Amino acid sequence: MIDRARLEAICSQAGAMAMNLWPGGGHALRHWSKGAAGPVSDADLMVDAFLKRELTALLPAAGWLSEETVDAPDRLQRDLVWLVDPIDGTRDFIRGRPGWCVSVALVSAGRPLMATLVAPARHEVWSATAGAGAFLNGERLTASTRTELPGARIPADSLPRSDADLVAVAKPNSIALRIAMVADDRADLLVTQRWGHEWDIAAAILIAREAGAAVSDANGATITFNKRVPQDWGVLACAPALHRAAVARWGGAIS
User: Fold this and answer.
1) What is the distance between the alpha carbons of residues 129 and 131, in angstroms, rounded to a whole number?
2) Cβ atoms of 25 and 18 closer than 8 Å
3) Looking at the structure, do residues 121 and 205 belong to the same domain, yes or no?
4) Residues 80, 59: contact at Cβ < 8 Å?
5) Does pLDDT of 29 surpass 90?
6) Which terminal residue of the chain, N or C, has fewer Cβ atoms less than 10 Å from its own Cβ?
7) Residues 87 and 158 occupy one common structural domain
8) What's the rounded Cα separation, in Å, for the pair 52 and 251?
9) Radius of gyration of the chain (CA)
10) In the structure, what pLDDT confidence band is assigned to residue 119 with cuts at 50, 70 and 90?
């Protein structure tokens, strides 16, 4: 296993590079649209190139899958694969808001082994190693233990009438940070009902799971990684006692 401190140091350096271009710090930033894939900026590409160089040097045997790199099919032949979103939450990044992070996971045989999220605008470094717990700024995390769905806290800008029994809490644009909120007991529940990419969620899923949360796709199935088509139907992270009720409410649909 690679040294966790070294992985965190690389990811923190990537976060510092992004901060140097973050409009929230008063910096100018060039950005454009990738169409349906959403926005991208110079910072996304710069951080992606840095992480590919540094993480490949750290573990040459590992494959690579990133939002901002053309997919290389040889990753499917590798047991170890880096899953990277250089800036998860690019919309918040571009708008000068703090709800973004650098997301890095090392996956083996379809399962995350190590994970790091660095959110420098929030002064947060999240990390996890399979079987060894999850941490935020060095402090061990314990996920939400809520037992009833009504009243559960969920990151959301607003709630539809059908979910009026829930409590909306602050929602960062980064899906990784929203999942991590369950790991840190800032939220009891996070659910999406759309196709999403593996690089968005791999690191945060390990952090939530190691903190004690239940994690699955929106239909309750186990999420595996480094698939030929690296997508999943939604993600659900919640207090373990809420999982069955959450799947009953939001599962069962693919569109």
Assistant:
1) 6
2) no
3) no
4) yes
5) no
6) C
7) no
8) 36
9) 17
10) very high
Domain containing residue 47: 4-140
CA distances from 77 to 61, 73, 109, 226, 250 (A): 11, 8, 10, 10, 34
Q: Are residues 132 and 11 in the same domain?
A: yes
Given a cut of 70, is residue 32 above it in pLDDT? no
Amino acid letter, 202:
A
Token pair 């709800």 is found at: 99
Residues 6+ away with beta carbon under 8 Å from 183: 126, 134, 136, 141, 143, 204, 207, 208, 210, 211, 213, 237
DSSP reduced 3-state for 47:
helix
- For residue 88 the two structure tokens come to 């998860």
How many CB atoms sit inside 10 A of residue 60's CB? 8
Would 13 be classed as within a structural domain? yes
Task: Say if residue 117's pLDDT is above 90.
Answer: yes
Q: Tokens for 69?
A: 């790199």
12 and 109, same structural domain? yes
Confidence grade of residue 35 (pLDDT, cut at 50, 70, 90): confident
Among residues 87, 119, 140, the one where a domain terminates is: 140
Q: Is 253 in contact with 235 (CB distance < 8 Å)?
A: no
Helices 4-19 and 42-58: crossing angle in degrees, nearest 10, is 160
